[in-house]
Each structure stands twice: as structure tokens, then as C-alpha cells.
Amino acid sequence: MAALWKTCQQCLRYGRSNGSIYTSITTVNIISKRNFKPQWVAPTLRELKRRKDVEESFNGGPKIFHRSTFLEWNYDAEIFAFSNRLGEKFNDSSLRAALIHTSYVERETARLSDIGVDSKLQLQDNEALSLKGGEMMSNFINGYLRAVFTQVPEELIRAMHDFLTSISNLETVAKHIGLGDLMLCADFPCKAETYVKSFKAIVAALAESSGEERARIFVQDLVVTQLYGQDVNELWNPADPIGNLTAILKREGKAEPEFRLIRQAGSNSVLAVYYVGIYSDKNFISEGAGESLEIAKDMAAREALKHFFHTEDSMRALPFGRQLKNIQAKITQLENKPNLPLSKWISEKVVSVVH
After folding, report:
1. Which CATH number fits the domain that encloses residue 311?
2. Plot region of 87 (φ>0 → left; ψ -120 to 50 → alpha; else → beta)
3. 221 and 258 both lie in a single domain
4. Which residues contact 352 (CB under 8 A, 6 or more apart)?
5. Which ranges form a coiled coil (predicted)?
6. What are the tens digits of pLDDT across the range 259-286?
């Protein structure tokens, strides 16, 4: 096309060419007609796109179809692939039961009753497995947190535990391992609670099939790893950090914290910042910054608590995978042995408990 257009330009400029100018112009007209679209095409496509966007906005997103509606759907093959994808060995009956929600059994029973068929289905839902798996997962998580965070109070352990076992976090994990295409439930897309219940049932099914040790490692690899990159101090917000710091120093036989203004900048502007340091017995403990003196004191007290609990920003990375091989026995022992509460926390007791 570029060569043809160049030829036409030369014809118009010099009035001559190797071929006839009329032949070249006729060729250009034929190519233009070939690429021509009627004027109604673009407006129609825009209108169809607009209607699709309105429908998706009204339905909360594009319509999703369950994989069981596909022609190549094979549930037995999907179950086999799921266990191999996770690298775990499941009893077939336990795994299938873990994926059957109560709503599915109720829907199938009602459907068979409507057509006059015996509605006694030999299906076991995942209610019992979900309860068992939830308890096991809670113990596994507590054991890991207490073995790794040996010097934090139990309140922070509980906050991290609640974060890991929250509905949103477990739903994310369940979706990423592909439970959405395997769960049998009445509603689709499945609800968040359905994902969580099925995932807990999977943990119990794995414990029944391969033992609690494999289930513990499974929870550590998939659930506990959600702490990676998370600031654990943001998960727990003590109500009175200054009061808690004062109580800890008092229990350790030290003087009350003394707050000193270290430096300040822009005190007469909207971008003021104050740096406050905390001292006890003339020993520096920590410092914090804020847009006011009260906020700076509060931040300095929080930094001091991080120092006591060894949860500073420069703390060591959490151990996962093979790094946990040597402390699995310790994790098992601490599953039902809580850390010291904040009201009784003292560094000497923590050291004695650790060693």
C-alpha cells in the first residue's frame, strides 16, 4: 500500500510513471471499498458495550459460570488433580465430604422430593469436619506464634491469631488453592463463609488422612505465611501505651519514664514535627515523632513497647518451610501454653520461660 501510494505521488508530481495513473487510482479505490464498514457498525458496538457495562454493574460484576457447566467437566479428575496440586494425600471419602456444603444437600433433597424420588441421599456434609478443622487450625497457629514470638504478650498473639483466622484472610487462601471450582453448594459464586468452612474441613480431612503433623505444616505453609510482609504491631493497638510502659518499668524496679523534647521543626506551621525521647534512670529507651507533643509521647511509648517485645521494624524475618524443622516439637508444646499477659509481663519472667 505504501509503495502504491508512493507511485501515485510520483505520477502526480512528474506526470508520468511506469504504469497508467488511472490504473493506480482504480486500485486504491478498490482497496478502500474493501476496508470500508457501514456507518451503523461503530454506534451499534458502542451501544452493546454500554448495555453490557450496565448489566454487569447491576449484577455486581460479570457473570461467572461454574466449571461444572463445561462439557469437559470431570469431578473425579478435578478431585485427583486438587490433591496432587497441593502435594498432599487425602482419603477420597474425607476429601469429598469436606467439599460438600449443607446447602447442597438440602437443595438436592428438595429437588428429588419435587420429582417424587426417594430423597434419602447418602451424602455427608462438612459441618463436623469444619468444626474439627477450625479447632485444629487455631491450635496450630497459636503454637507457631508462641514459638516464634516468645517475648510478646498474649494479647498480641491473640490479635495475630484473629487476623490469620479472619473470614477475609481464609477466603483469600481458599480461593487461591482453587476451592471455588470444587465446592458443592447451593449458591454460586460461593459466599465467603462457605469458602472458610470448606477450607477448615480440608484441614480436618488432611489430618484424618495423613496425620496432624501434615495438617500442621499445611496450615503453616498456607495460612501463617499471610503474616509475611505484615507489620504485626499494626494488628494490636494497646489502649494506653504510656500507662503500659509505666507499669512494666515499675514491675522491673525501674523509675517511671521521663519524656524529653529532643528536637522540633516547624512548630509555628501546619507541618510541625516534634521528637520526644523516653528515659528511665537516666538511660535512653526510645524516641518517637509526631505533629504534637502528645502524639510524639504516644509514639515514643509504642516504640519502647516494640523494643521490649522484640517486634521492631528491624526484627528478623519470620521462619517458614524448612526453617521450622527444628522447632516443630516446640510448636506442638506451646499450642495450649499461652504467653504472659500484658498485665503480668516482665522481661525476667519472659527470659525464664524461653530458656
Report:
1. 3.30.160.20
2. left
3. no
4. none
5. none
6. 999 999 998 898 999 999 999 999 999 9
